[in-house]
Amino acid sequence: LVLDIESSLRLAQQQAQLTSSLEPLLGVLKTAQQRLQRASNPRLISIQRAIDRDLELVKSAQITDLPGMLLVLDELVALTDELPLVIELQRPQIQSNKPADAATSQPGMPWWKMAFERVLLEARGLLRVSRIDSPEAALLAPEQGFLLRENLKLKLLNARLSLLARQTDAAKADLQAVTVSLKKYFDPGARKTQQALLLLDKAQSLSKGGPLPRLDGSLAALATASAGK
């Protein structure tokens, strides 16, 4: 019984590390708890207490939701191509000549005044005053938008690889860099940009967990029992 429970606990620990889930640990600890209660052997009381403590530890553990974060990152990668740049909103729109013609074709207006009004309207269309909080966003060339979006995708894919390699800190750093780029170069008022920022906040909240709990207490008690001590 002791050797069987020890083998089950070690296997469940490996499954939990591979899947980043607490379910294998919860299942094997509850099963071991039931088997020890049915055995009713006084020599197994120390093992039963250690398993009870580890079970409470696993129930109260908060770990990083790896599958949920991977899904969020996939959504962000798919959304990157639809994000509007700030510089795209600052380009002047081509306006029709009909308003200018209507303003300069009033009856009884002298020809020189009509010509002056037309030149004045055209001159107003050449100058546009707007505010951009980030100078880098204003100097961004239109063809650089593609490279900027590809750079965002690379950062998101790097964060994904870091999560799979259990390097949570590196993944958080990449997500923070993506957040900074979104707020600097992309339109913060656009619906797609707001959706991307919400997904980033969700990914950050899913990563606020600790490492997987280890069953060292139960394994130590099982090793002591198997040694006959």
What do these coordinates show?
The protein is mostly helical and 229 residues long. 70% of the residues lie in helices and 0% in strands. It contains twelve helices and no strands. It has helices at residues 2-19, 23-39, 45-59, 66-79, 86-89, 98-103, 111-126, 135-138, 144-164, 168-185, 191-206, 216-226. Helix 2 runs antiparallel to helix 3 and helix 10 (168-185) packs antiparallel against helix 11. Residues 91-100 have low confidence and may be disordered.
Q: What key phrases describe this protein's structure?
A:
229 residues, mainly alpha, 0% strand
Spell out the blueprint of helices and strands.
Blueprint: H1 2-19, H2 23-39, H3 45-59, H4 66-79, H5 86-89, H6 98-103, H7 111-126, H8 135-138, H9 144-164, H10 168-185, H11 191-206, H12 216-226
Helix pairs in contact: 1-2, 1-12, 2-3, 3-12, 4-9, 4-11, 9-10, 10-11
Tally of contiguous helical segments: 12
Structural class: mainly alpha
Annotation, overall tally of beta strands: 0
Radius of gyration: 32 Å
Looking at the structure, what is the overall shape? Answer: rod-shaped
Helix content: 55-70%
Poorly predicted residue ranges: 91-100
Question: In angstroms, what separates the terminal alpha carbons?
Answer: 16 Å
Q: How much of the polypeptide forms β-strand, as a percent range? A: under 5%
Order of helices and strands: HHHHHHHHHHHH
Major sheet details: none
